[in-house]
Amino acid sequence: MSKGILIYAEVLKSGYVAPVFFSLAAKAQELSEKLNGEEVMALLICKTGDAERFKEGFQACGVDKVYVYEDEHFDHYSTELYSKIAVDLAREIEPAIFLIGATTQGRDLAPRISTQLGTGLTADCTGLDINEKNMLAATRPTFGGKLMATILCKNFPQMATVRAGVFPFLETPVYKDTQMIYKNHNLQNFETKAKLLEFIQSTEEVINSLDNAKIIVAGGKGVKTKESFVLLDRLADVLGGTVAASRGAVDMGLAPASIQVGQTGKTVSPEVYIACGISGAIQHTVGIEGAKKIIAINIDKDAPIFGVADVGIVGDLNSIVPQLTEYMELRGK
Ligand SMILES: Cc1cc2nc3c(=O)[nH]c(=O)nc-3n(C[C@H](O)[C@H](O)[C@H](O)COP(=O)(O)OP(=O)(O)OC[C@H]3O[C@@H](n4cnc5c(N)ncnc54)[C@H](O)[C@@H]3O)c2cc1C
């Protein structure tokens, strides 16, 4: 019988486990409680000797067991190899639930695993719960964000991907005596159709620190020009934050797609989100539900963004943003 919650622990190029794993582990504690304490497990594929380095992190977020696949070649992601490992493990341990972060890698991996296992996958979930029949109830926006659908999966494992920032991390660590289970594998000679020739890091990804930003200053179509977008850069700088954009601003060429927030962009959960010249379409606000405080600056007093904002400023961003920047600069001196 399928039991337990398995989470894929993606190792980033930086050599750390992806933050989305820890937010999924936090959510898994809640799901496990509803499933009468079923085990929370992790799948870790990493370079030889790295697993021990990650052990403390797994212990602190309440993981019962980590299935470790180490190899000197596992410093580069391979779709075929990683999905084979995940599928073999899922067939062996039969988890009831299999969660994967909706990162670039997770989005590539999850559908391949679910297809091979002949199970369903709910992608980009914004909510996970256990229903009265002990099944995973995975919620995600549908119809262009106008409706929230809760989806049940008939087969096992019940799979879901979740973006970074959707679920908060544990406020206090739940220490567990995590069992590290080193799996023997014979994958050195595993034939893959694709070969990695070179890895070129996207510079946009390097500078994009939205996932962990405490303060985000976001610009929308109302910013209108690249020159005005610089005003947001300055405010973000003074506040020690970073800039983001609505799809409207991205479509206008004011900002790169890598900093788009919303349904088809990033989900963020900063302490403060300052929305400048953003109308507040549902496809945008679905990406900022995790923000602790939302400040909106908009020329139109009826803009929907004011409906979700904690603080609303009605006025022209071209005069308000520089004033805010100046005020914060003076305070900082
Ligand atoms: C399937 C689908 C997925 C989508 N995904 C996303 C997504 O991921 N992210 C996203 O953002 N959108 C997404 N959208 C698009 C979304 O529906 C909106 O079109 C978009 O968010 C609008 O961007 P905006 O708020 O910048 O522009 P607008 O809606 O045009 O709003 C501009 C705002 O600026 C204000 N303004 C104008 N001048 C000034 C000024 N001088 N000072 C202050 N305020 C001013 C205006 O009053 C207005 O409220 C998606 C749509 C679909 C259908």
Order of helices and strands: EHEHEHEHEEEEEEHEHEHEHEEH
Small molecules (ligands, ions, cofactors) in the structure? flavin-adenine dinucleotide
- The CATH architecture designation of the largest domain is 3-Layer(aba) Sandwich
Strand order of the largest sheet: 5-9-4-1-2-3-10
What is the total tally of β strands?
Answer: 15
Number of helices: 9
Number of domains: 2
CATH topology of the largest domain: Rossmann fold
SS-based class: alpha/beta
What portion of the residues fall into strands of 2 or more residues?
A: 15-25%
| Low-confidence segments | none
CATH class of the largest domain: Alpha Beta
Helix share, percent:
25-40%
In CATH, the homologous superfamily of the largest domain goes by the name HUPs
Radius of gyration: 21 Å
Biggest sheet, open or closed, and with what strands and sense? 7 strands, parallel
Q: Calculate the terminal CA-CA distance, rounded to whole Å.
A: 63 Å
What would you say this structure looks like, in words?
- The protein has 333 residues and is α/β, with parallel strands linked by helices.
- The chain folds into 2 domains: 5-200, 3-Layer(aba) Sandwich (Rossmann fold); 205-332, TPP-binding domain (Rossmann fold), CATH 3.40.50.1220.
- 30% of the residues lie in helices and 23% in strands.
- The protein has 9 helices and 15 strands.
- The strands form 3 sheets. A 7-stranded parallel β-sheet has the order 5-9-4-1-2-3-10, with helices on both faces. Strands 12-11-13-14-15 form a 5-stranded parallel β-sheet.
- Helix 6 (226-239) packs parallel to helix 9 (317-332).
- The longest helix is centred in the N-terminal third of the chain and has 16 residues, at 19-34.
